[in-house]
Here is the input.
Amino acid sequence: MNKRIQIVGIFTVALVFIAFSLLMADENSFKKAGGSGYFSIGMSKLDIGDLNSRLAAKGYPEFSDNFLSMGGGGHTFRDKLVIGGEGFGLTASEEKFSLGNTAYKANLAVGYGFFDIGYMLFSSKKVNIFPMLGIGGGGASITIIQSGTASFDDVLSNPKRNTELSKGAFLLNLSLNAEYFITFKESKEGVGGLLLGVQAGYTIAPFTSDWKIDEYDVTGGPDFNFSGPYLRIEFGGGGMGR
Here is the structure.
């Protein structure tokens, strides 16, 4: 993914580290504590109708608006406050097509990164339910690659065999989360074990950048709507205690 997404990821990790350090600074200021880390997989839906219309007008294939979502994150909580971070990559199917006598393939990829803050609505020894607001950013990239083989001299004569168009966005993420712990270790003080979770939410993109090729602006590009609903299943580990 492009440099924008890498910067967002670094920024998110830094915020999570700072928040976690502040929460751990005073162990006696909260009655209940816990944390979890997880891998997640699910589906996201984006409105990319304008992009597909522009692609179809030039003889390119259209991308599906249903994306496979994969990623992960981690959260810690003290009493009612939940703080953490997460990142996700969305991928659509690879599309193959021809322009004239030349074969190509095209890929569309989207990446998100968020710093999260939430409120614990319900918490027991094995179950957590909490809404969260995520603040972060992301990017989308379209990669068009000429298929087939080429000699070294052919590449030097015609180097334009791979084009990547990209754009970035400032994002907000609203979600409702439910976690269930399959406990391996349990005592009066708390539990620890495997985590199964569900996250449902909606991503909002208040601001987006122009399309770019490397550092060059591409004018007159189609709208790309980063906003849309998603549903993900989480697998990981964690625990809760006092």
